[in-house]
Specification:
The chain has about 220 residues and is mainly α. About 70% of the residues lie in helices and about 0% in strands.
Length: about 220
Amino acid sequence: MAEPIASADTRQRLLDAAGEVFAEQGFRATTVRAICQRARANIAAVNYHFGDKERLYAAVLQYAHRCAMDTYPLEQGLPEAATAAQRLQAFIQSFLLRLFDEGSPAWHGKLMAREMIEPTHALDALVETEIRPRAEQLAAIVRALVGPQMSDEQVQMCAMSIVGQCLFYHHARPLIRRLNPAQRFTAREVADLAAHITQFSLSALHHFAQPEERARP
């Protein structure tokens, strides 16, 4: 039986069901009817809670991203006095934990991967509300490490290089496991990987730093 249209539980059912169906079929192939059938909700519930399929999809993307951020916050419990290097490692470890999280619903990662391949207008909103602030935070960490003389463009490229290292281990996971069958990306292995990427990145950033920054231990 369908849930009441105005039920808060119905809204949550729609988010979860829509995430599953969107991840399986993609935004364009998914129908509102298929979502409502899986959510056991009245077909009018989508319009009541979200307005239309496009706005439901945008809400699903936001929901998945916020769930991941709530589970693995960027600060990782660091004190306010943490160094830029410590903040960089916390940022990288949080990012890797989100990429390799197997405890979250399976559709979270699959949906984001599909969105990267077939971007929709919903990605624009997600970038502005969620991703850009995180990118600016990483850029600020890089800036603190290299000093003020580096151009903003160089800082952005360095930040993207750090992100690229993390994404490689995620996207190339099937290949990595064939090259190294013992690699399982457990929480301990992710922590070790975060430490490696941090040290590798710090060594590279060291060469971009001002002379007085290079002299620091």
